[in-house]
Amino acid sequence: MNLFVANWKMNMLRAGARAYAQELGRRIGDRGLDVELVVAPPLTALDAARDAGERWSMAAQNVSSEAEGAFTGEVSARQLVDAGCRYVIIGHSERRTLFGEAGPMLARKLARAREAELVPIYCVGETADEHTAGATDSVLSDQIATLRDDPPGAPLVVAYEPVWCIGTGTAATPRDAAVASTRIRELLASRQLRVLYGGSVNPANAGDLLRDGKVDGFLIGGASLDPAAFAAISRAETG
Ligand code: PGA
What we know:
By secondary structure, the protein is of the alpha/beta class. The protein contains 10 helices and 8 strands. The protein has helices at residues 14-28, 46-49, 77-82, 93-98, 103-115, 128-132, 136-145, 174-187, 206-212, 227-234; strands spanning 3-7, 36-40, 56-60, 85-90, 119-124, 156-160, 193-198, 217-220. Strands 1-2-3-4-5-6-7-8 form an 8-stranded parallel beta barrel, surrounded by 5 helices. The structure holds 2-phosphoglycolic acid.
């Protein structure tokens, strides 16, 4: 089943999250959509963004690389599960570039997620310079190598998010998305996984990307802050 993840990043207070959940519920209706929906709000809004009818599940945007103990300011994988999360985003480019998270730390985060049975949404993608230099392939192999010790039988979501597309208003072409998602599937050939595309997805480009991008859904930032746009994107495959 295709998967659509709303990554709110560091946006929204609880009142806004409650209003969002009501509106999203109204937009998708009582029966829900024939796709899987996940909302990743800031941790402070996890409860407010939850759906009592469970038409969408919850994700965290980050997790500690440590399991428990004296790590001021961190939130553990078990605490995320306890707070109702099923998924966790790991290795988002904003974590990699703004907070210096690299392979070894991300591998530890993946391990903590597995211990707690959180499903990782592991993000990969090249920068603009790497893209222009034709280095996409080697960047993807390096970033996928971080999954080396991840248990091969466990459910996995990989999000291809070219850094030059995130928050820029310019999405990758369906062809670029298809090349990258095919490469990711080759690199993880022995595994069952869903590959998402992320980077300036909106209701206008979602249909083409889903049809021709060889992906199983999207990780959506800016557009997902509007419940109408998130619902419209999630309906993209049905037209
Ligand atoms: P965007 O963000 O949709 O605003 O480009 C995507 C992401 O960072 O996950």
